Amino acid sequence: MQVSDRKAVELFWHALDGESVLKAVASQFGGLTQDVAAQRLALYGPNRLRPPKKQTSWQRLLAQFHNILIYILLGAGVVTAILGHWVDTSVILGVVVINAIIGFLQEGKAERAMDAIRRMLSVQACGLRDGTRCSIPAENLVPGDIV
After folding, report:
1. Domain locations along the chain
2. With CB atoms counted within 10 Å of each terminal CB, which end of the chain scores lower, N or C?
C-alpha cells in the first residue's frame, strides 16, 4: 500500500480526483472488504492516539506552587519571617498550603471525571465496508476506509 510511502504523504490530496485517491490508498468506491480491513488493522494497528503521560501525585502537588501569585505570597512570607512577624508569616504560609491542598484535590477530582467521560464515550464513524453503509468504531478505521 502506498499510504506509508513518503510520496503518499507529500501528495496534494485535496487536488486529486476520487479515482486517484482510491488508487493511492488501494481502496474502491464500495469501500474496503471486511477481510482487507482486518488485514490492515493487524498491519497498522488501531486508529487511536497514545494516551498522554499522567502526572504523578507529587508532580500534581508541586504544580500547585508553580504560580506567580504563590511566588509573591512565599516571598511575603519570607519577608515577614525576617522581620519577626510570626503571626503574619503563619497566616501567609497557611494560605499557600491550603490553596495547594484545595487545588490538588480539585485537579484529582477533575482528572477522575475526565477519565470516566472518556470511558463512556464510544466514537463511531459512518463508513462503507463491503459496499454497504455501516457504523465503524473509530479505532477500527484503517487507511483506505471511506468515511
Report:
1. 6-51+123-140, 57-119
2. C
Q: How far apart are the first and last CA of the chain?
A: 19
Cut 0.90: pTM above it: no
For 134-143, what is the mean pLDDT? 91
37 has pLDDT over 50: yes
